[in-house]
Design a protein that fits this description.
With 347 residues, this protein is of the alpha+beta class. Helix content is 33%, strand content 16%. It has a seven-stranded antiparallel beta sheet, covered by helices on one side. Helix 11 crosses helix 12.
Length: 347
């Protein structure tokens, strides 16, 4: 089998990276998919479509729960990073070009020699090994999963847990999960493929698995990064794990340009595994009130539609209010001394 001249296939294939992977399927770029409304990955899938990384099927669906084969995953990864692959003359399989590229980078795949494996569903563990390879590391099995979780390139499938077991490595990958893997890489500024070493990477370089407190903070940061900061790009997020030193730990939203400027702090109680306080510190910053209101809602508090207006009113009139948010009551308390600050206390 001969490889021909390089051709920039990636640009033309981006729109089918999550649509028709081969075998004659036709992918279309839809205005919106009709089968993701209540799916956990809805926002990620929508993000991928807006970025030009995701397309659906002619019937307007995305099929987020459909399993992804090894060949489909390899194509998805290569196309989403806009990587050039070499055209293959007389291919034996539609994904030959992508496998040639992956083999040149030493990424671990079963389908190099066994063509039938290319059309079998890929496991999450194999995905972990492949993704770790793209950042220039060679870890297998549990170590690959540990690397992804420790460096926040992935989370577990069980809500509230970030462990190797909760990653469920033997489960097969779905299209929704594939989209999330891509987004995690983009969020963490992984934008090009590194070559995977031929020798295993040292175990000493593996990150420490997050503590229960850090798991809670990571979940808050994940929600903010995926559901809020995409709408408020002038802000970014960082955490402070006070494990054992204070009663609570915090996630802080900071100004994107002046990283020393704290805009909103979110206090997390590891004992109850819950958020106890939102502290708006800089209400005069453009969009800060709206961003804080969006954060409260994204983190699970079903506030009324006029919640942003209520925050503005409390700040303007300097009068406290209570707002019902599902099973919680939010006590909106303006700062006694500074007109630009207020607390949102979860009761």
């Amino acid at each position: 089998m001969k490889r021909g001249l390089k051709t920039a296939l990636a640009a033309s294939l981006l729109f089918s990276a999550f649509g028709g992977f081969g075998g004659g399927s036709i992918a279309v770029l839809a205005a919106g998919f009709n089968d993701i409304e209540n799916h956990w990955a809805k926002e990620t899938i929508t993000w991928g479509q807006q970025e030009g990384l995701i397309s659906g099927y002619p019937d307007g669906t995305f099929k987020p729960n459909v399993q992804v084969t090894e060949a489909e995953f390899v194509k998805m990864m290569v196309a989403s990073f806009k990587t050039e692959v070499s055209e293959v003359q007389s291919p034996k399989h539609w994904a030959d070009a992508y496998y040639y590229f992956a083999e040149s980078k030493n990424y671990p795949l079963k389908g190099y020699q066994e063509l039938a494996q290319r059309d079998q569903p890929i496991t999450r563990e194999r995905v972990a090994e492949f993704v770790v390879g793209t950042v220039g590391k060679n870890y297998s099995g549990d170590q690959a999963i540990q690397y992804l979780i420790g460096f926040k390139l992935a989370t577990g499938k069980v809500e509230g847990e970030m462990t190797i077991a909760s990653f469920k490595g033997q489960d097969t990958l779905t299209r929704g999960e594939a989209a999330q893997f891509i987004r995690n890489l983009k969020i963490n500024n992984v934008n090009y493929f590194r070559t995977r070493p031929y020798e295993p990477s040292p175990a000493s370089e593996l990150p420490v698995m997050p503590s229960p407190t850090q798991v809670g903070l990571n979940q808050i940061m994940y929600v903010l990064n995926t559901h809020v900061m995409t709408k408020f790009p002038n802000y970014s997020v960082r955490s402070a794990n006070h494990d054992g030193h204070f009663d609570t730990s915090t996630v802080t939203v900071i100004d994107g340009k002046n990283r020393n400027l704290l805009v909103t702090q979110i206090e997390y109680d590891p004992k109850t595994k819950s958020i106890v306080l939102f502290h708006l510190l800089e209400s005069e910053r453009e969009g800060s009130v709206e961003m804080t209101a969006a954060s409260v809602k994204a983190l699970g508090f079903p506030v009324p539609d006029n919640f942003t207006d209520t925050l503005h009113t409390v700040l303007k009139e300097h009068k406290e209010q209570r707002v019902q948010a599902g099973q919680w009551t939010l006590y909106l308390k303006p700062d006694e001394n500074l007109m630009t600050r207020m607390e949102i206390i979860v009761e």
